[in-house]
Give the backbone structure.
Amino acid sequence: MELSAVLTPVAEGGFVALNPETGTTTQGETVEEALANLREATELYLEEFPLSVTGRSLLTTFHVAVHA
């Protein structure tokens, strides 16, 4: 099963990793570690709560106006 991962760098170092399809979240010092931890957390989640994926997540960007 192919799922999505969103990795966000954190100020103190490392990355927070999120799987949008299941909501599982974890962290790691490197991208590789964060993804490995997310894979493990998501597999454990799916053992308890099976998921029937109806489509793939779409990642995009958008702009917001920031007023000083």
About this structure: The first helix runs from residue 31 to 48. The two ends are 45 Å apart (CA to CA). The domain at 1-68 is CATH 3.30.160.250 (Double Stranded RNA Binding Domain). The chain has a mean pLDDT of 92.
